[in-house]
Amino acid sequence: MNRVGLLILIFQLIVAPLLGSPVRVGRISDNLSLNDLARRFNLKVIWLEKDKKVLLKNAQNSLSFEVNKRDFELNDTTVYLGKPVCHIPGSLVISKKDFEKTIKPLLSLDSFTPPPKLHRIVIDPGHGGKDVGAISKQLRMYEKDLTLDIARRLKKLLEEKGYNVLMTRNFDKNIDCEDRCKWANQEKADLLVSIHINSVSQSLSREIQGVESYILTPESQPSTGFKTLTLADKIKNIGNAYDTWNAVLGYDVQNSLHKRTNAQDRGLKRMRLRVLKDLRCPGILVECGFMSHPVEGRLLMSPDYKQKLADAISQGISAYHRHLARPIR
Fold first, then answer.
1. What is the pLDDT of residue 31?
2. Is the CB of residue 254 less than 8 Å from the CB of residue 213?
């Protein structure tokens, strides 16, 4: 047993019961200390708040972790984990699955080969036809119309960069989520981007805004917003073959989205979405903002802002393509 393993065991058996700690660290073999992570990637460990919040930093990357939180920040962009960060004497601890499926791809993509090709991109404008999606009665706005507008703008930008771009719908048509995925597979897509717009109830409309992105949850991890595993979580979906590349794609798009639009960063999240589960290529679902928010809703009506969103997604895809060609180090 190594030193970190011994510390975890002591903490679980002796220290935690005395403190009445509500957080379980889990089995020793399932965890990795952030001190070890720092050594692997030549990161300096800087305690921002002793035993609670730590910064791992080098010339290329800055990672911020906080005890009991189920997310971390990589270069000021929020990335959600499967399990919360825990504490042992002298270090914070993450699950090894979070390291393998999220952090390692973002810090050391050259560990994973071969990279997928990227030429044919399928854009999926969410909803359509009788499925109108979210509605803003005040602004007389339907989600299905916004997603199609942004998708058309994105298609033009990507085609200008030389990609072969297809759309699951180019007019007001209702398509089932599974059919969108099947069609992308039939067309041998190298990447799928599904475009959506968020909304919340009127009571929360002034509080909640911003952009967020979703990629497929890895096998045997709970999706973002869920704490415990279900039977469905333990099934390996077809799309899980691309967990590594999904992580990089998701981060690059979310990082570009919130930084290029100045929208609030709601993070890169995980969900077993029907449009992503059976994909035979990397895929992402992007929530471009909240039509229910009084300011963001009006922005989403603006042609200039919709163009800015399309450009941000396009730039994120370009960053992802660069990482495939020149792995992160």
1. 94
2. yes
What is the CB-side half-sphere exposure of residue 27 using CA atoms within 13 A?
4
Q: Residue 33 has which token pair? A: 């200390």
Contact predicate 255/323, CB 8 Å: no
Model pLDDT for residues 16-62, shown as the tens digit of each residue: 434 434 344 455 568 999 999 999 999 999 999 999 999 999 999 99
Q: Kindly report the pTM of this predicted structure.
A: 0.90
Q: Please tell me the CATH code under which domain 3-100 is placed.
A: 3.30.457.10
Q: How far is CA 135 from CA 156, 170, 202, 266, in A?
A: 26, 20, 12, 21
Domain extents in the chain: 3-100, 120-325
The bridge status of strand 53-57 relative to strand 44-49 is: antiparallel
pLDDT averaged over every residue in the chain: 92
Please state whether beta strands 31-33 and 44-49 pair in parallel, antiparallel, or not at all (unpaired).
unpaired
For residues 1 and 9, the answer to whether their CB atoms sit within 8 Å is yes
β partners of residue 290: 198
- Express each pLDDT in 206-264 by its tens digit: 999 999 999 999 999 999 999 999 999 999 999 999 999 999 999 999 999 999 999 99
Q: Find residue 98's DSSP bridge partners.
A: none
CATH class of 120-325: alpha beta
